[in-house]
Design brief:
Number of strands: 36
Radius of gyration: 39 Å
Number of helices: 21
Distance between the termini: 85 Å
Strand content: 25-35%
Shape: elongated
Helix content: 25-40%
Length: 787
């Protein structure tokens, strides 16, 4: 939020103070100020008020004019000007020779055969607004030759406050609240707002207002007639522009001006479109066109301002196009209201439309401010448009009041919290200057929290300590080393397992850890032909591309692989993250933490890459739990998975996850020559596997006998099961030696290592066990390969 020091000076005398230093104090004590401070007008000089005395059309140009300008000099000045709004007798801003406008120095210049000895300026050229349709038209009675800075508030200091630091301070969303902080920091009084006495209009008819929904806490309205002014005063337009808002028309500008001044959003309706104001929600959704010309879909939870039963504005967000102030508007109905903060935030999120008004309402504004803002509006409207008439009394519907907050504490409480000695006088002065009501009885304080701080900010005694200490200055505290016991933090087993997995995958296998969000990226999935599976969706998602929560991490990793496919021929990525699989019986998300690994290669075939991944995960499980894995074929449960070689990963008969190949149609959209394999394990299931520990056994003194057997089979699982069925203690190791593919079929060669701890085995003993394995497999149609 941009803040004007000129505006602050309306309420606090800052003369003789270092403004930059005061802004720095504000940043330390109240809200974070962005680094750059803007000194507006410092790059302008030599700009004066001048009057156009004569105009001639340029003989060779349809756009240029030859002017004679009275700039307060003894002689008239010749100027070439292309503005379409020039006229004799018009007063405008004139840059004399030697003037500076930003980086531009004004010197005599030849334009289309004529020399111009100065420049008539537009508001945009002087940095006063975005208006560039013509030169400035000065309607005020100002002598020619007067420096423009003496006429208008061009010189100003603007600083920006970080909006996030104002989240819990609804009172700081206007200049008056900021001025209160500056007054406290500077030790100077805060001037009261100059408002109109609205009691003089009590005998006038009331505005027809009715609140029909408790989401509206207060609605204050008043009506005006005989409004003639269309354009805002120059100083008002300058302040709005310096603070990031554009001028629209006088009435719209005045409501925006008051919003920036007091933090209270207001809305001016054309009275012809707001005869019976009703605040309510509708039972059925409908479309509504807002002031910006956008048709918005309003559901049954959106609070609306209505003219009887016709919606004219979205409460707290934006007015309707049909009720806006137009050129022939002479009467208006002013809205100064207070709405439920949560309702406004949710509505603006559903509509994907956050406005300056909604941002303020979301912060829980003070309902007491609505009438004061209306009184301030009446004062400014009367000052700037003298013929205006108030045609109604102030009508105020106030249905929900915040509770009054009173806090009691003693001096010892302050001393205990702060650790330093702060006098009672300093405490009283600090809180009083911030608007708190303070009663001191000995060392006991009774503090009444002002309404503008009681909506969500100051509710506890500790909050009062913060108020005292931040104004006292945290930099005035003595720096002392805190004394406190330190206890070692026990790492949870889940966290320990995760760290071990990361270390193994990075240090041993050189994989890259990636991080992704928990949602499915619809646009990225479409590029790969992957469907976004139905799952939990984000409510009021502003971007439909990311509204669905992911069920699996693998599609996201496939997208990441596609993005990086052109950077390296071979790489692997992994992530430990969360997925959601629907909801449980309590309607809560079934959330799971998963390990996802994806390998990409242009140099290895799918089979080799697949076994590389199985080796990786085998090492991981062996290192962490000292157990072996097994695999069981399963059906592909996602469209991006290859229907073959998709297996369940098992440990101790418990399912840990799935491993598989990417479907060829998806691979083609990544790289036709590449192979992609993936693995997804459940971290909770892995953590629950009991650690077998490391067991040591004495090495046999007697030689081992290795027997190689080649079986005609395309699957290793039956062979493994047969060996387990024989269950011989003499088999110390089983390994797959090779896999053959030939016209006769696929064959797998295994090596059985036999050893006895007390004697040398005989050939007959070894072959007897091998024959048993062969016999078991032959019953399943798996035979030894013929030589």
């Amino acid at each position: 939020m941009l803040i004007s020091i000129n505006w602050i000076k309306d309420f606090v005398d800052l003369s003789g103070l270092d403004i930059d230093e005061l802004i720095h104090k504000f940043s330390l004590s109240t809200a974070e100020v962005e680094n750059e401070i803007f000194h507006k007008g410092s790059d302008l000089s030599g700009i004066v008020v001048a009057e156009i005395k004569s105009i001639e059309n340029h003989p060779d140009s349809k756009k240029l004019h030859l002017l004679k300008v009275d700039a307060g000099e003894p002689e008239l000045t010749d100027v070439v000007c292309g503005a379409p709004n020039v006229r004799v007798g018009m007063k405008t801003a004139f840059a004399k020779l030697g003037a500076h406008i930003g980086d531009i120095d004004i010197t005599p210049r030849d334009l289309a055969g004529f020399t111009s000895y100065g420049m008539c300026c537009s508001e945009k050229e002087l940095g006063l607004s975005d208006e560039n349709a013509g030169i400035i038209d000065i309607t005020d009675d100002v002598p020619v030759g007067t420096d423009l800075k003496e006429v208008y508030e061009i010189d100003d200091i603007i600083f920006e406050v970080d909006n996030k630091s104002l989240t819990n301070r609804p009172d700081l969303w206007g200049h008056y609240g900021i001025a209160r902080e500056f007054a406290t920091l500077a030790g100077r009084p805060l001037k009261a707002l100059d408002t109109a006495d609205l009691s003089v209009y009590n005998d006038l008819p009331k505005v027809d207002i009715r609140i029909e929904d408790p989401l509206c806490k207060r609605y204050t309205g008043i009506q005006f007639g005989n409004i003639t002014r269309k354009v805002s005063p120059v100083n008002m337009r300058i302040r709005l522009f310096y603070c990031g808002m554009r001028a629209i028309n006088f009435l719209a500008d005045l409501t925006n001006y008051l919003m920036l001044e007091m933090g209270q959003p207001m809305h001016a309706f054309d009275s012809r479109q707001a005869e019976k104001i009703r605040v309510k929600r509708f039972e059925k959704p409908f479309d509504f066109t807002t002031l910006d010309g956008v048709v918005r879909h309003c559901d049954e939870n959106t609070l609306m301002i209505c003219n009887d039963d016709t919606p004219v504005a979205i409460a707290g967000i934006m007015g309707g196009l049909d009720s806006e102030i137009v050129d022939d508007t002479t009467s208006l109905t002013l809205e100064s209201a207070n709405f439920d903060a949560v309702s406004i935030r949710k509505s603006s999120s559903r509509l994907a439309h956050r406005t300056d008004a909604s941002m303020r309402y979301e912060k829980s504004l003070d309902p007491e401010m609505t009438a004061a803002a209306a009184a301030r509006f009446v004062k400014l409207l009367s000052d700037f448009d003298g013929g205006v008439k108030v045609t109604s009394s102030l009508t105020d519907e106030y249905i929900t009041h915040f509770d009054k907050v009173t806090l009691n504490f003693d001096k010892a409480f302050v001393d205990r919290y702060t650790g330093i000695e702060i006098s009672n006088e300093t405490i009283v002065n600090t809180l009083t200057s911030l608007g708190f009501g303070v009663t001191l009885d000995g060392d006991n304080f009774t503090v009444d929290v002002p309404t503008w701080r009681a909506t969500k900010d100051v509710t506890l005694k500790a909050d009062i300590i913060e108020e005292i200490t931040r104004i006292y200055g945290y930099d005035n505290f003595d720096v002392n080393t805190a004394t406190a016991p330190l206890f070692p933090v026990r790492i949870f087993e889940e966290k320990n397992v995760e760290e071990q997995i990361k270390d193994i995958l990075v240090k041993r296998f050189s994989l890259h850890e990636v991080h992704s969000y928990i949602w499915a990226y619809n646009d990225e999935y479409k590029k790969l032909g992957i469907d976004v599976e139905d799952n939990i969706k984000l409510l009021n998602a502003t971007n439909p591309n990311i509204e669905t929560i992911r069920r699996s991490m693998i599609p996201n990793q496939i997208c990441q692989a596609r993005t990086n496919a052109s950077y390296a021929p071979d790489f692997g990525i992994f992530e430990i993250g969360r997925v959601v699989d629907g909801v449980d019986e309590n309607n809560l998300c079934r959330e799971h933490k998963k390990l996802g690994i994806t390998l990409f290669s242009k140099t290895m075939d799918a089979q080799s890459l697949y076994f590389k991944l199985t080796d990786m995960i085998s090492v991981v499980i062996d290192d962490i739990r000292h157990k072996k894995l097994s695999y069981k074929a399963c059906e592909a449960d996602h469209g991006y998975i290859h229907p073959k070689n998709y297996n369940t990963v098992l440990c101790d008969g418990r399912e840990l996850g799935k491993i598989g190949l990417l479907h060829p149609t998806v691979i083609k959209k990544i790289d036709k020559k590449a192979a992609v394999v993936f693995l997804e394990l459940d971290i909770d299931a892995l953590v629950s596997v009991e650690n077998a520990g490391i067991r040591y056994s004495e090495t046999s003194k007697f030689p081992a006998i290795d027997v190689d057997l080649t079986f005609v089979s395309d699957r290793y699982a039956p062979i493994k099961e047969a060996i387990e069925e024989v269950n011989s203690d003499l088999i110390k190791n089983v390994s797959v030696i090779d896999i053959y593919n030939d016209p006769a079929g696929k064959a797998i060669t295994i090596r059985l290592s036999f050893v006895h701890t007390e004697r040398t085995l005989t050939k007959d003993e070894v072959m007897e066990i091998a024959d048993k394995i062969t016999a078991i497999l032959s019953k399943q149609g798996i035979t030894l390969k013929s030589l």
